[in-house]
């Protein structure tokens, strides 16, 4: 079967970021250049503190880099003011975090419906989308349950359904399996993979969980704010390809 060339949906060009704590200034991202493609689950792996979450926050427009450029869906995020950036995130991005971030008083269906109201959808359309997303993550029969009645894996699936219902082009997941046991972690990563394939979504996941490596389409290994390797796990390790080259 012929495959169309994958679209590059996220680009970092010579991105750098430092933080100051007291008198100490530490560089967390060093002149980092990277392309991420649509329709793939890309995993950024690496030890704690190497800069994974900072990179995800910059690529998703949650944080601004000190230097360099980020293009998301061909928009230069540096050119968007705070309001435009918020709107960009509302329209095009979904987020999944380690801690689920669910409201204790809402059932699964209400959790997923809530953010859809900010998109201006009618209540009927919001309900339709929320139900479809919950079905897609296998929670159709449990959509009336509250977080206290759901397992950790199910809570994370609600969080994924909430992100998915927005139909985002870009889905960012920060340590989505860290709080889960092996079986539930596996289910979550399979769902993220399926979303990338089925919807053509760009799924960018950061994790130091080595169990995820074999399930990603592509694995970028990070250390000390740099990307050390870029490989496709099902194939033999390939050298970094053009990662550190400046933009054309
Ligand atoms: N807002 C901030 N202010 C000061 N330092 C920060 C800030 N955010 C991150 N850092 C520092 O930047 C470094 C990288 O943090 P980051 O969270 O990106 O790493 P990580 O690879 O995601 O780690 P983990 O796997 O533990 O989540 C750490 O040393 C962290 O303490």
UniProtKB/TrEMBL annotation:
Biased composition (Polar residues): 232-241
Domain ABC transporter residue range list: 10-248
Keywords: ATP-binding, Nucleotide-binding, Transport
SMART domains xref list: AAA (SM00382)
Pfam family of the protein (one): ABC_tran
Domain of life: Bacteria
UniProt xrefs under SUPFAM superfamilies: P-loop containing nucleoside triphosphate hydrolases (SSF52540)
Record region (Disordered): 227-248
Coiled coil location: none
GO MF, one example: transmembrane transporter activity
Cross-referenced InterPro entries: AAA+_ATPase, ABC_transporter-like_ATP-bd, ABC_transporter-like_CS, ABC_transpr_LolD-like, MacB-like_ATP-bd, P-loop_NTPase
Any one GO cellular component localisation term in the record: transmembrane transporter complex
The UniProt record lists the keyword Signal: no
Entry keyword Acyltransferase: no
Family label: Belongs to the ABC transporter superfamily. Macrolide exporter (TC 3.A.1.122) family.
Name of this chain's protein: ABC transporter ATP-binding protein
């Amino acid at each position: 079967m012929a495959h169309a060339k994958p679209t590059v949906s996220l680009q970092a060009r010579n991105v750098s970021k430092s933080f100051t704590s007291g008198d100490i200034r530490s560089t967390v991202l060093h002149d980092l250049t990277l392309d991420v493609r649509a329709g793939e689950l890309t995993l950024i792996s690496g030890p704690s503190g190497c800069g994974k979450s900072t990179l995800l926050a910059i690529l998703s427009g949650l944080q601004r880099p000190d230097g360099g450029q980020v293009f998301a869906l061909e928009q230069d995020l540096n050119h968007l003011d705070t309001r435009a950036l918020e709107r960009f995130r509302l329209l095009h991005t979904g987020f999944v975090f380690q801690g689920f971030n669910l409201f204790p008083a809402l059932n699964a269906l209400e959790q997923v419906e809530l953010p859809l109201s900010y998109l201006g959808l009618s209540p009927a359309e919001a309900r339709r989308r929320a139900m479809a997303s919950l079905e897609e993550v296998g929670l159709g029969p449990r959509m009336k349950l509250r977080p206290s009645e759901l397992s950790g894996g199910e809570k994370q699936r609600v969080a994924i359904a909430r992100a998915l219902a927005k139909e985002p082009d870009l889905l960012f997941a920060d340590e989505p399996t860290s709080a889960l046991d092996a079986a539930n972690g596996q289910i979550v990563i399979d769902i993220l993979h399926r979303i990338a394939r089925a919807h053509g979504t760009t799924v960018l996941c950061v994790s130091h969980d080595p169990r995820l490596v074999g399930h990603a389409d592509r694995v970028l290994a990070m250390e000390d704010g740099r990307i050390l390797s870029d490989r496709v796990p099902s194939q033999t390790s390939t050298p970094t390809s053009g990662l550190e080259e400046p933009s054309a």
